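Margin note: ligand = FE2/S2 (inorganic) cluster.
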Amino acid sequence: MVLMIICVCNAINCKSVRAAVEAGADSPKAVQAHHGCKFQCGKCRPSIGEMISEALFERDPSPALVPAE
Ligand code: FES
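Resulting structure:
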């Protein structure tokens, strides 16, 4: 299995991001905190955010918005 590094500054890979989300992290900052880290350059923030969105969508693919009646 190839592990893609998501955060170079803190050596957080894709598996580590998924583990943090499984443990309840729901924001990039929470993913960093789960691993005892803080953002350094912050360039990974969008990628982590995307991974969180994808994981949450896989968990509950129902639409977030409900049509108005
Ligand atoms: S790449 Fe994540 S803080 Fe720099």
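The chain has one domain: 7-59.
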